[in-house]
Design brief:
This protein is α/β, with parallel strands linked by helices. It folds into 2 domains: 175 residues, Aldehyde Dehydrogenase, Chain A, domain 1 (3-Layer(aba) Sandwich), CATH 3.40.605; 143 residues, Aldehyde Dehydrogenase, Chain A, domain 2. The chain is 38% helix and 16% strand. Strand 6, helix 8 and strand 7 form a beta-alpha-beta unit. Helix 1 runs antiparallel to helix 3 and helix 1 packs across helix 6. The longest helix is centred in the last third of the chain and has 16 residues. It starts with a helix and ends with a helix. The model has no long low-confidence stretch (mean pLDDT 95).
Length: 349
């Protein structure tokens, strides 16, 4: 990795954070274009996603990240790495593109049909900040991937079966659907519960780091959550979100489900992990140890746990973050716990 590339990444971080006038999240035309392609990509949430990526590219964060990868300082042979990106959240595939570039490889990128605007814009911005001709190392394609030496692909359980077969002859990282949960003790402050709201509602709850289930101590007053989350009522103005809310409300009422609602969220006791958009599951617990055992057993379905009692909970198989931090991963918080950068560096070792 050259000094100019490092400098370019730092400048891209400023671009992501909106510190470059009329660029990045301050480029209204870019935001409108992204939303026109995908109605889940509201300008406010696109800005949040871009700024979160910008925090990853602060100089001190990059230095801390790279400190664990001495291989980054060495010359390596370049491979072609195919990337099949998801499109459920704005910029969700950017981290994979970044890791390919950091490792000295070339990326063959198949963007999701729902996010073909933001990642090419980020690559173009990085190219403008670097003297390393970044654009020549990223090829955007449609259709099937051709000429890849390795693959990183993200999809549903069904598409992953296809990926496993189609890319069986290549080194690969395949990611499937996961979700995140929150474990409350009952002693959380109003501000901590308010922070939890961003874990639940940001990006309309569509991400693998979105909290879709709460583990609650028996007797917890759910009204405390509704009081803390009033500020999120605006998400019901999104037609796609509102349609999901109305649909599940009708189905659950017809089925005689016992549910609680506040006009923009349906809350229901349920054994499942992934609640539909516009809804949230919860389960009671009596002993923290029982929660620990359940979460350890479901580790392959979980991306992260948000909680203020991580030391007591002590789940080792799933990373824990404080309430309100689920949507603020560090660059070393790799999806599904697979070190993407190590995988890529090993391709040319």
């Amino acid at each position: 990795m050259t000094n100019t590339f490092f400098s370019g990444l730092v400048q891209l971080g400023a671009w992501f954070r909106g510190e470059v006038e009329n660029a990045g999240p301050e480029d209204d035309a870019l935001l409108r274009f992204a939303e026109a392609q995908n109605r889940w990509f509201s300008p406010a949430f696109v800005k949040e996603a871009m700024k979160a990526n910008g925090e990853m590219l602060r100089e001190e964060v990059l230095e801390q990240w790279f400190a664990d990868y001495s291989e980054l300082k060495r010359e390596r042979s370049s491979k072609h790495v195919g990337l099949v990106l998801a499109g459920n959240l704005p910029m969700v595939g950017w981290h994979d593109v970044l890791c390919v570039l950091l490792s000295g490889h070339r990326a063959i990128v198949k963007c999701s049909s729902e996010d073909k605007v933001l990642i090419p814009a980020a690559v173009a911005a990085l190219d403008s900040f670097c003297a390393d001709d970044i654009a020549s190392r990223v090829e955007f394609v449609s259709g099937t991937l051709q000429g890849a030496d390795a693959v990183i692909a993200t999809g549903s359980a069904n598409t992953n079966r296809y990926f496993e077969y189609y890319f069986r002859h290549l080194p690969r990282v395949l990611r499937s659907q996961r979700t995140s949960i929150a474990v409350l003790s009952g002693s959380e402050s109003h501000e901590q519960l308010r922070a939890l709201g961003s874990d639940v509602f940001q990006y309309y709850g569509l991400g693998c780091r979105s909290v879709t289930k709460l583990m609650l101590p028996r007797g917890f007053d759910l009204n405390r959550l509704f009081a803390a989350w009033v500020e999120w009522g605006h998400i019901a103005q999104n037609n796609k979100y509102a349609n999901n809310y109305d649909y599940h409300k009708a189905v659950w009422l017809l089925n005689g489900e016992d549910l609680i609602e506040n006009g923009f969220l349906l809350v229901k006791e349920d054994k499942g992990w992934v609640s539909p958009v516009g809804t949230l599951y919860y389960a009671w617990y009596d002993q923290v140890a029982s929660v620990r055992d359940e979460l350890e057993g479901a580790a392959n379905s979980l991306q992260c746990i948000t909680t203020e009692i991580s030391d007591v909970l002590n789940v080792t198989a799933v990373p824990s973050v404080p309430l309100g931090h689920a949507q603020k991963p560090k660059p070393w918080d790799y999806a599904d716990g697979v070190d993407t950068l190590n995988f890529l560096l090993a391709l040319s070792s």
